Amino acid sequence: MNNLILTPEALTAENFSQFGQVISCEQKDYLTINNGYAKKYPDLATIDTQENGGTTAVHIFVAKKRQFPLQIKMLEKHPFFSQTFIPKDNQPFLVVVAPPSDEPNIEDIRSFISNGEQGVNYSRGVWHFPLISVKDDVQFIVIDRKYDIDSDDLEQCIVHPIEDSNITLEFSL
After folding, report:
1. In what order do the strands lie in the sheet with 138-145?
2. Residue ranges covered by each domain of the chain
3. Which tens digits make up the pLDDT trace of 107-156?
4. Under CATH, to which class is 2-169 assigned?
């Protein structure tokens, strides 16, 4: 059995690039709009939901606090769309990811921590652990593919149990 301890690293556009995009205004150009009353930071992420005529949906998730150390016993992926998480409450959150592949490669699993002003957009097929909040009742805007249970025949989510490795995410405030 493999043992792996994950320690979150600071989330940056560079170190997260193989998994998707960091959504942030940091070091980004903006346009002045609305007669000078707003700054627009355009094109921060590529939302990928168009497979088989799919449409984009916006949701709000309200997350419960996770307990640490956290055992990572599964990863999931969305093979036909990207998935975006943006914290509404300016609260840091953690992500655990692995690059796209048929099955997650344990040696490639990484963990990141958002500074609370950053969101993430997982590219289609990126393995990830479900939402990891460090506080209770934190709200997240989630953008992904709209799912119609009656007519959508695409596989929405593939869950891969991790049984042959002991993966622990360590974190403290």
Report:
1. 20-23, 119-122, 83-87, 138-145, 56-63
2. 2-169
3. 999 999 999 999 999 999 999 999 999 999 999 999 999 877 666 677 88
4. mainly beta
